[in-house]
Amino acid sequence: MQVCKHNLSRYKIKLSSVKTMAYTLRQLTYAVAVADSGSITEASARLGISQPAISAALKELEAEFGISIFLRQPAHRIALSPAGQRFINRARRLLDESHEFENDALGLSREVQGPLDVGCFLPTAPFILPLIIEYMAEHHPGMDIRIHEGDLDEINQWLTTGEIEAALTYDMRPHPGVQFESLIEAPVHAVLPDDDPLAKRQSISLYDLVNRDMVAFDLPITPQFFRGLFLSLGIEPRIAYYVKSFEMVRSLVGGGLGFSLLVMRPHSETSYSGGKLTYVPLSDDLPHPHYGMAFMANAVPRRLFQVFAEGCRHVLKEEGRAESYFVRDPSAKRRKVTKPEGSR
C-alpha cells in the first residue's frame, strides 16, 4: 500500500503541472472546415453553425497561439497563411486522433475509419495507387484515402509539413527525418521502338545505347539518377529531349526519336501516338532503385497509418501484385558487359 501511495503522489505532481488547454476540439473543427471550404459562409452552411460563432472561434484560436491562421481576401474569401497551413495540418491530425480515441473507448477499434492523406510519386501513381486503394476498399471500407501526386521534392515537403502522413515513392531522394521502407527492388529497363534491332535482344547494355539520342524525364532528381547510371560505367548519355510526362516519353520513343530508361512499364505496348514499343532489361551491373513507403521517422503512428502500411506490405511485397510492371533480366546471373569499340 505504501508503494501505491508513493506512485499516486507522483502522478498528482505531474497532473498539477499540466497546462489547461485554452482551445477546444470544436474550435479546431470550425477552423478545419473554414480551411476546406475557403470561406466562413460556406463553412457555416456545411456545419450548421452561425457565422459569428465560427468567426469568434477563429479569433480565439489566433489569440491563443499568437499567429494569423487565415488571410482575408476580397469577396469574403480566405486563404491559409504559411503558419496557418502548418496549424491546420496539425489540427486535422489531432481531430483524426480524437475520433480514433473515441472509437477505441467505445470498443470499435477494429473498425478502421477516417481520412488518411497519402502521397505518391506522380509517374508511378497510375500503377500503384489503384492496387492499394482497391485492397483498402475491400478490407477497410471505412478508410478514406486522400491522394496527393507529386515529384520527389514535393513528397518530402508534404511529409515534413504534415500535409501527408505516408507516401509511396522511390528512395532516390533521402531527406533528414524521413524514413523509407523498401517494398520492391525495381530494376531499370530500356524502352525502344518495336522495329529497333536492339528490341529483339533478350537484354542490352547501356554501352549499346550511349551513342543514341535519349528521351529523359525532366522531374527533380530523375535526370540525375538515370545519367548517373551511365556515369557509373564511365560513359555519358546523349540526351536529346527532356519531358515531364510519362506518356510523352513513350510517344517520342514510339515515334523513333530516341530511347528512354524507365523503371515501371504499362501493360500496353502502344503509345498514345500509336507507336509500338518494346521494353528490354539491362544486363549491366547497376544499382537498383527501391520502391516503398516514406514517412516521418519521429512521428507516432496512428492506427490508420499502421493498417495502411500493412496493406501496402501485403499487396506490394508479399503478394507482388505490381510485379508485372517491372522488366527484369531473365538471366539467373548478370553477365559482365565488355565496353564495345567506338563508345564514349
Description of the structure:
This protein is an alpha/beta fold and 344 residues long. It is 39% helix and 19% strand. The longest helix has 24 residues. The termini are far apart.
> What is the CATH-assigned architecture of the largest domain?
3-Layer(aba) Sandwich
Percentage of residues assigned to helices: 25-40%
Text of the CATH class of the largest domain: Alpha Beta
How large, in whole angstroms, is the Cα Rg? 26 Å
Query: Approximately what portion of the residues adopt beta-strand conformation?
Result: 15-25%
Sheet/helix structural class: alpha/beta
Largest sheet: 5 strands, mixed
Strand count: 12
**So how many helices?**
10
Number of domains: 3
Question: At the fourth CATH level, what is the homologous superfamily of the largest domain?
Answer: Periplasmic binding protein-like II
**Largest sheet: spatial strand order:** 4-3-5-12-6
Overall mean confidence score, pLDDT: 85
The N- and C-terminal alpha carbons lie at a distance of 82 Å
User: Helix and strand succession?
Assistant: HHHHEEHEHEHEEEEHEHEEEH
- Return residue spans where pLDDT drops below 50 for at least 5 consecutive residues: 1-18, 332-344
Shape: elongated
CATH topology of the largest domain: D-Maltodextrin-Binding Protein, domain 2
